[in-house]
TrEMBL record:
The keyword Lipid metabolism does not apply. GO terms for molecular function: nucleotide binding; oxidoreductase activity. Keywords: Oxidoreductase. Residues 127-243 form the GFO/IDH/MocA-like oxidoreductase domain. Pfam families: GFO_IDH_MocA, GFO_IDH_MocA_C3. It comes from Candidatus Planktophila lacus. The keyword Ribosomal protein does not apply. This is Myo-inositol 2-dehydrogenase / D-chiro-inositol 1-dehydrogenase.
Length: 324
């Protein structure tokens, strides 16, 4: 199986490494050909000139470039009719996302969206416990999304917002785990410490209250800085059980009672926290390209999660809850 990985940065390297370990033959492409060549030498795989991307034949494509380049690349790849794995988000606007969905349907092209948290083994187990009824009637969910280090100005320029970049993963998990669309959101935010966020009307702390159409209430807290490490976890409360995901010896929080023997070194970033999830997701793409499984995460999921993120921004502006 031949897979083209477009992008030779951090995510391109991860995708290429995982696809290679899954048995795929990988060719790297980057707008700067020398960067693709250097990474290919490190990973012991092939690279080719970016200008030849559409001239060569592949079984599938991975789009692992900056968000603002996704639409242009997808516009070229979709007519080929081959499976595509695109990192989230497809776009920062619903309108562009809809155009991609419409065009992919026209050409019969399947796009798998990179919501890697779905492939995190503990999260998958939690989702199964909910869907199988082991948790019972869902009462509520509490979610935590706390980055280790604050973002750079260069990153903030194209990230969209804390909702479109960070919390979009939480919104996808809420929909996936509850199997229900999100009906209403209320959001508040602030710049508490890191002033670069104010330049882009963004925030370094956020608090979200949302309700699903099925009636599940969810509280989400986010920060762009956690001095202890990268903290992504959640709790699900139901009539039969209460479960926690992401609470382990590497969770970056201090236990005042001192009863949990946390590791000295905690999660330092999202890649370390979800390294296994990325591998599972890339291997799932191989199965998908090979026709062994259905698309595990179609682009409608990117669209719906993005709608919630935008509703949060509208809530900030209006100071009131927003219905979707």
């Amino acid at each position: 199986m031949r897979i083209a990985v477009i992008g030779a940065g951090r995510m391109g390297a991860i995708r290429a490494e995982d696809l290679l370990s899954g048995g795929a033959e990988v060719t790297l492409f980057n707008r700067r050909d020398n960067v693709a060549k250097e990474l290919a030498q490190k990973l012991n795989c092939s690279s080719a000139e970016y200008a030849d991307l559409l001239k060569l034949d592949f079984d599938g494509y991975v789009v692992a470039t900056a968000t603002n380049s996704h639409i242009a690349i997808l516009d070229q790849l979709i007519p080929l009719g081959k499976p595509i794995l695109c990192e989230k988000p497809i776009s920062l606007t619903v309108e562009e996302t809809d155009l991609v969905i419409e065009k992919s349907k026209k050409h019969g092209t399947e796009i798998q969206v990179g919501f890697q948290r779905r492939f995190d083994p503990p999260i998958s187990v939690a989702a199964h416990k909910v869907s199988s009824g082991q948790v019972g009637t869902l009462y509520a969910m509490h979610m935590y999304a706390h980055d280790h280090q604050p973002s750079t100005l260069e990153f903030l320029e194209g990230s969209g917002s804390i909702y479109r970049d960070l919390h979009v993963h939480d919104f996808d998990l809420v929909r996936w785990i509850t199997q229900s669309e999100i009906k209403k959101v209320y959001a508040s935010q602030a710049v508490r410490e890191h002033q670069q966020y104010a330049k882009y009307n963004d925030a370094d702390v956020s608090l979200i209250s949302l309700t699903t159409e099925s009636g599940v209430q969810v509280a989400i807290t986010g920060t762009r800085h956690n001095p202890v490490g990268h903290d992504v976890r959640f709790e699900v409360f139901g009539s039969k059980d209460s479960i926690a995901v992401g609470l382990n010896l590497k969770t970056p929080i201090h236990d005042i009672e001192g009863e949990i023997s946390f590791s000295e070194i905690r999660y330092t970033g999202f890649i370390e926290r979800f390294r296994q999830a990325f591998a599972q997701e890339s291997h799932a793409f191989i199965e998908f390209v090979d026709g062994k499984t259905a698309n595990p995460c179609p682009p409608i999921n990117a669209r719906q999660a993005l709608r919630v993120a935008i509703a949060c921004e509208e809530s900030i502006l209006s100071g009131s809850a927003v219905e979707l």
